[in-house]
Amino acid sequence: MKAVVVHGPGDVRIDRIPDPTPGPGEVLLAMEWGGICGSDLGYWARGASGTAVLRHPLVLGHEVAGRVAAVGAGVTGLPEGTPATVHPALLVGEIALPDRIAGRTNLHPHVRYFGSAAFDPHTDGGFSEYRVVPADQVRPLPHGVDTEQGALAEPLAVALHAVHRAGDVRGRTVLVNGTGPIGALVVAAAKHRGATHVIAADLSAPSLAVAAAMGADETVDLGAGAPLPSDVELVVEASGAPAALGAVLRATARGGTLVQVGNLPGSPAPAQLGDLVSREITWVGSYRFVEEISDALRALQDGLDVAPLVTHRFDLDDAAEALRTAAAPGSSKVLLRLRP
C-alpha cells in the first residue's frame, strides 16, 4: 500500500509498505481523509516536533478517518464499512495517575501518539491507504458525519479541551489570539459552548476570514496595526509565539484566565511576562485532550460547521505539495484524500 513517509528534513516520499493485517483486538481501517497538523509540518521541515526528534522514517498523520475494512479476533460491534475516526493516543504501561489528575489521561507520562517520533521505534501515523488500530481507539462516526468531517474531530477535540480549561464560557466574552486551524476551531468551540461574544486576533487577514466564517463575532487584524482589546476575562492563546505573550497578558483582565493551547517552544525564548504577576492572571496550559473527541463528534452531529476551516484538498500522491501549501501563508486546514 501507499503511505506518506518522512525520511528527514525536507524529505517526504510516497513509499510502498506492506499491507497490514489486524490481529486480536485490532481493526483494519481503510483510510479516506487526513488533516495536516503542525507536528507533521515540524517533522517535514525540521526533522522534529517539539522535543520529538526523527530518527527513522515515519508515516505521518494523526488527524484521520476512514472505514472498517476488517477486524481481528475478539472485536465486535464494528461491522465492515463502519465510518470511523481514531483517538490517536495509546497509554504505555500500567501507571496509576495521582488522585489530583485522575482521569486526565492526556497527562499520562508515557503516551504513544499516531505519527509521533517521541518513542524509538516511532509510532506510525495514518497517512496511508490502510492502518491497523487497537479497537478501543476506534471512534465510529455518528449518523450524518462523513469521513472528511471525521478527520477534523481530533483537532476539534483539542479546541474543545482548551475551552473546557477556560471554565464555563456561557454568556461570556472570549478572546482567541492566533487563528490558525486550532485557533479557528477554538472560536467555533467557544461559540458551541455558549460564549456570546468571541473576538479573534491574528496577523493574517486570510486567517481572520476563516475565524469569522467559523463564528467569530469580531476580528482584530494585528498585521494592520490594530491593538488587542483590553480587560477580557477569558483569553485563549493559540499562536504559540512567545513574542505575543506580553500583549496577550496585557489584554487579559485583572484576575482573568489565560489558556495556553498554542505550543510554546521547548528552548529558551524571550517573553514579557510581568503582567502575569501584577494582574494576578491565572495562566493554564491545555495539552491535547482526554475524551473530547467524543464531544467533537457529537458537536459535528449537532451541526457545528467546520467546513470553512478547510482551504485545500490534495491526493495522497501530492503530499509534498500539500505540506508546502499547509506551511505557506494563506492556508488553514489542508486535507489529504488517502484513497481515490
From TrEMBL:
GO terms for molecular function: oxidoreductase activity; zinc ion binding. Its cofactor is Zn(2+). Residues 8-336 form the Enoyl reductase (ER) domain. CDD domains: idonate-5-DH. Pfam families: ADH_N (PF08240), ADH_zinc_N (PF00107). Gene3D superfamilies: Medium-chain alcohol dehydrogenases, catalytic domain, NAD(P)-binding Rossmann-like Domain. Keywords: Metal-binding, Oxidoreductase, Zinc. InterPro entries: ADH-like_C, ADH-like_N, ADH_Zn_CS, ER, GroES-like_sf, NAD(P)-bd_dom_sf. Belongs to the zinc-containing alcohol dehydrogenase family. This is L-idonate 5-dehydrogenase. It comes from Pseudonocardia kunmingensis. The lineage of its organism: Bacteria, Bacillati, Actinomycetota, Actinomycetes, Pseudonocardiales.
